Amino acid sequence: MNRITYLLVVICLSIFIAAPLTSNCSAWAAENETGAGPAVVEHETGFYYTVQKGDTLWDLSQRFSNSPWQWPELWRENRQIANPHRIYPGERIRLYRRKGAHRFGEINKGSLPKESLPLEEESLPLESVKFYYVAIDQVGFIRKEPVKPYGTIYKVRKEKEMIYEGDVVYIKPEDNISLAPGNRYTIYRTLKPIKYKKTNAYIGIQHYLTGVVEIIQQENQFAIAKVMRSYRPIKINDLIMPYNRRLPHITLQKSQKGLEGQIIEGEEHQAMIGDRVIAFIDKGQQDGVKPGQFYNLYYEDEHRVKTGSGNKVVFTPVDFGEFLVIHIEKSTATVLITRTEKEFEGGTKIRTPGQ
Question: Architecture of 137-242 per CATH?
């Protein structure tokens, strides 16, 4: 083989090898152009917007913060965005809320397409925003009739007082219940009946979730299971019910008009309730309450006039906080306190925003 022929062979082989590599690079670039931007870290909790074609941080800042000049703050909240001038459809952007605002910002309706107009005058385009709450599986609920258990934890290997993730437990199944290997169950306990403080009227039974077990072996009169998750310390005599995974993303929805009720109490029965606390309200599915709705906390002072008729004067109600519904039952709901100007007690009044 002479030198010229050798060079031609080398050039041809180089083109043959390089062609697929060039093709792959082009495909990667096209993929990024069509929206394969960095994903949001799944363990974060907060509000997220899914980028649509044509969106810019400038426009999103105008839509959700009422000013396009807030776009650097939006970029700062989203460190996964390398270049603020290039965001991609399908990418999720974390939104931040202005302090003291019950919404993300006023919306210029004329600047939005008809299909993305807000559901009410003061709301944002709800269908495009989701709240991610990664601990959704561990929030409990109040129900008038308690859940029928599938079994009871009656023993733990190594005789421990408190049971945690990784421990092996023994479960006594209820009559006619088969606990098959591989099946998962939510561990819970029921607490004392809850009643209204003023009227003593019955509200329901709190179901306090403590973890998740997976059956690894079934015997004649018991089952052996491994604790896969422990939300809180698990105890002997805790019950189990079928595990149904809840999705961590909650789509924001329009609040039910004219709703009024009250906070029942905090999930952990704390004396005072504050920001980021899980609590229960005395309104549920039958009242039009849905996950993803916002409602306000409010108070109204009263004063009895000393002279004249002696009638009570009720002052104008004042909103001092808000919460997001994250789980519903027929007559109650589980909520996350997203903002409050002060701590408050069970019995605090709630209402639809803007009433």
Answer: Beta Barrel (2.40)
Sequence letter at residue 271: A
Contact 78, 94 (CB under 8 A): yes
Q: What is the dihedral of CA 171, 148, 330, 122, to 10 degrees?
A: 10
> What is the chain's alpha carbon radius of gyration, rounded to the nearest angstrom?
28
User: In the beta sheet, which residues pair with residue 334?
Assistant: 280, 327
The per-residue pLDDT for range 55-95, each reduced to its tens digit, is 999 988 888 777 888 888 888 888 888 888 889 988 888 88
* Rounded distance between C-alpha atoms, residue 135 and residue 122, angstroms: 29
Determine the 3-state secondary structure of 191 from DSSP.
strand
The full set of domain ranges for the chain reads 46-132, 137-242, 250-351
Quote the tokens at residue 86. Answer: 């290039």
Q: Which CATH class is domain 250-351?
A: mainly beta
- Enter the tokens of residue 137: 């599986």
List the alpha helices (DSSP H) in the chain: 3-33, 57-65, 71-76
Q: How does pLDDT run across 103-146, given as a tens digit for each residue?
A: 444 333 343 333 333 333 334 455 678 899 999 999 999 999 99
Here the tokens at position 127 are 């269908």
